[in-house]
Write a structure and sequence with these properties.
The structure is a single chain. By secondary structure, the chain is an alpha+beta fold. Helices cover 48% and strands 10% of the residues. The protein has helices spanning 15-28, 35-46, 51-61, 65-74, 94-98, 101-112, 154-173; strands at 86-91, 125-130, 142-144, 147-149. Helix 1 packs antiparallel against helix 2. The relative contact order is 0.10. Bound molecules: FE2/S2 (inorganic) cluster.
């Protein structure tokens, strides 16, 4: 849910969202110097940093909005765009590159219809590319939902994507 105008906590109509923001405010009310932790909590909840929440936190914790943005833009872990439920990070470091990383990235791009840096329309997948995931011995490598997959082939990638898609379909069917 998004709120376009400046709001206060009382204006949040989604109960779950309201409770999450209240918890973040409660956690940090007396230590507003810990902006990184606040931003991490917001991103954990939303998968990105919605501008209306940053505005709200700024006012409630009396932290200048400019200070919040300067921290958020400094660290690459923070995103201002809504991300998908499943984040796929493909590696394009040297070891992965020579072992076919670009081919796998292109395969995933084609399968999902998105390029690195983009999110599928149904908000299920985001695709990201980094220069090394630190496990070059098992190149080519990708991470999906915090799990590392190595020694990848197109066949393996296909299997992993299908498993995630099937579990999503099952979840959808059970609702
Ligand atoms: S180059 Fe891919 S994990 Fe290091």
């Amino acid at each position: 849910m998004g709120y376009k105008t400046l709001i206060t906590i009382a204006d949040i109509t989604n109960t779950e969202e309201k409770m999450a923001i209240e918890q973040i405010l409660k956690n940090y009310h007396n230590e507003n110097g810990n902006i990184i932790s606040i931003l991490q909590d917001i991103q954990d909840h939303y998968n990105f940093l919605p501008s209306y929440v940053l505005n709200l936190i700024s006012r409630e914790l009396k932290i200048p909005l400019s200070k919040i943005y300067s921290v958020a833009t400094f660290y690459t872990q923070f995103s201002f765009n809504e991300k998908g439920k499943h984040i796929i990070t493909v590696c394009d470091g040297t070891a992965c590159h020579v072992k076919g990383g670009p081919l796998l990235r292109d395969y995933i791009s084609t399968q999902l219809g998105i390029h690195p840096g983009e999110t599928t329309e149904d908000k299920l997948f985001s695709l990201e590319e980094v220069s090394c995931l630190g496990c070059c011995a098992i190149a080519p490598v990708m991470i999906i939902d915090d799990k590392i997959h190595g020694s990848l082939t197109v066949r393996k990638v296909n299997k992993i994507l299908n498993t995630v898609k099937k579990s999503e379909a099952a979840e959808e069917g059970s609702q």
